[in-house]
Amino acid sequence: MSSQRATAFVPGHVTAFFSAHPADDPAVAGSRGAGVTLADGVTVRVSAADVAADGATGDAAAADAAAAAATADSGSRTIDGDRGSIGAVEDVLADLNATGADVAVETDLPIGAGFGVSGAAALGAALAANAAFDRGRSENDLVRTAHAAEVGRGTGLGDVVAQARGGVPVRLEPGAPGVGELDGVPASARVEYVTFDELSTEEVLGGDTTALSAAGEAALDRLRADPRLPTLMDAARGFARDADLLVPEVAEAVDAVDAAGGEAAMAMLGRTVFALGTGLSDAGYEPRACRVDAAGARLVDDRDRG
Amino acid sequence: MSSQRATAFVPGHVTAFFSAHPADDPAVAGSRGAGVTLADGVTVRVSAADVAADGATGDAAAADAAAAAATADSGSRTIDGDRGSIGAVEDVLADLNATGADVAVETDLPIGAGFGVSGAAALGAALAANAAFDRGRSENDLVRTAHAAEVGRGTGLGDVVAQARGGVPVRLEPGAPGVGELDGVPASARVEYVTFDELSTEEVLGGDTTALSAAGEAALDRLRADPRLPTLMDAARGFARDADLLVPEVAEAVDAVDAAGGEAAMAMLGRTVFALGTGLSDAGYEPRACRVDAAGARLVDDRDRG
């Protein structure tokens, strides 16, 4: 029994602080740290190529793009309607024997700005491809596959497991389900964010992360002793400073929010500032806003969305 | 910093099958098995007694009930607007030093019918009391507290950890966070249910559970080998039969759904049948319907609800 078509939603994730824990086995590799998942996220639609080709979607533009990008060996790949692929998504599809599928990734989040879009796309592809092709994998299996793909591509270490959980995830131990360990800060909050420019995750994670990881461990100890949102934000600011990752525009915005009585920090790794409540608005910025995502990654009923 | 008032929502949970794993330490005790969490659930509102007493809620009936039930040592307790308390909720409040709070439990689910209402109320009270009184506990801590209270009262073994996760939780190993282990069947589905009468969880769990647990382990092995919803339903039917828990009205409904081409099973432990999609409607019943809950237990913004 195969539904031939499925859609998944995965929340964005801004990392507040982290320590890097590389390992040969990508399911064991990962990061410790904490962050906030966002109701703004990534939607991934997967369909068997022949289903899309019959035009039953009624979406002429998508069908055209699909036809344009399709090859003999793999289906079409689009990102926000334009032809494009993501390495970790391809690895997930290969693992699920679903490279022939048409895969459409859609997001309102900025890409390469610290929102974990690549991890979200990989996890969404895993959930949707498993459902569309009825592969019969469990949730832990699918999270493990997406985590391994993301780690293998060097584009992230902890976004996938955090995005699978939702809320305000705390990564107590690094790694995929069955290896890593998670907790969470219980919180429902409005989050604002502003992005200035891109920052390469691969570049930072590929360098010497010793000092960064020491700062990340110290921040995690603080949050575990007091798992509250204001403590998370303060630990994030300390981490950015100690790990020497602050960039001028971000530092300026964090200071402006603080001066206006709010709580802001830098999203790791991006030239992005996120704030609780109306922190950035109060400081005179024009941020985008959403809420903490309560659910984590999930299949969505095609009747519910688009 | 205390918000003085907070609300949590916890999904209902129908257990498909389980094995019982008692232990002296209630965080270690629990069950293995699987079930389905429901978007129909339990809402718990917690407020510091003096906040409710000032009438700022604008809910005159609730304020009256609160005043009626309040004592010197503990705040008011209501269940669906009527005075009433739940043992596991009281234990959670004591653990959080919040017995003075006014606590209102609201649910559309039948009580004592296999939906995990007591566990949901305990977990909702933990989340909401922690937020209202700013106790600074982590999510795992709060789940652990509610799980221990539920196990201690003998009203459930696995609902709390399942309700914390949401979706279609598979309890691989029994116990609270840090001890137990969870997976999930990735699925978004409509669920229908009909309840015939109450069944005492305490009575069944208090008896000899050897045969029941053997049947539960066999069902779990089947689901782990094939984590799909139809397999879960089939394993649930086998469990109810092998554990000799089927009651006549339930057996009749399950057979009727099967005859109509659908998938149904008994909710453990209640005189309740649940079915996928429109299974019960198709068989001529007049069920209540909701969807699988994607999020699990969560704080809800008071601006969002009520």
From TrEMBL, chains A, B:
<dbReference type="InterPro" id="IPR020568">
    <property type="entry name" value="Ribosomal_Su5_D2-typ_SF"/>
</dbReference>
<keyword id="KW-0067">ATP-binding</keyword>
<dbReference type="InterPro" id="IPR006204">
    <property type="entry name" value="GHMP_kinase_N_dom"/>
</dbReference>
<dbReference type="InterPro" id="IPR012043">
    <property type="entry name" value="PoK"/>
</dbReference>
<keyword id="KW-0808">Transferase</keyword>
<dbReference type="GO" id="GO:0005524">
    <property type="term" value="F:ATP binding"/>
</dbReference>
<comment type="similarity">
    <text>Belongs to the GHMP kinase family. PoK subfamily.</text>
</comment>
<keyword id="KW-0418">Kinase</keyword>
<dbReference type="GO" id="GO:0015937">
    <property type="term" value="P:coenzyme A biosynthetic process"/>
</dbReference>
<comment type="function">
    <text>Phosphorylates (R)-pantoate to form (R)-4-phosphopantoate in the CoA biosynthesis pathway.</text>
</comment>
<feature type="domain" description="GHMP kinase N-terminal">
    <location>
        <begin position="87"/>
        <end position="167"/>
    </location>
</feature>
<protein>
    <recommendedName>
        <fullName>Pantoate kinase</fullName>
        <ecNumber>2.7.1.169</ecNumber>
    </recommendedName>
</protein>
<dbReference type="GO" id="GO:0016301">
    <property type="term" value="F:kinase activity"/>
</dbReference>
<comment type="pathway">
    <text>Cofactor biosynthesis; coenzyme A biosynthesis.</text>
</comment>
<dbReference type="InterPro" id="IPR014721">
    <property type="entry name" value="Ribsml_uS5_D2-typ_fold_subgr"/>
</dbReference>
<keyword id="KW-0173">Coenzyme A biosynthesis</keyword>
<keyword id="KW-0547">Nucleotide-binding</keyword>
<dbReference type="Pfam" id="PF00288">
    <property type="entry name" value="GHMP_kinases_N"/>
</dbReference>
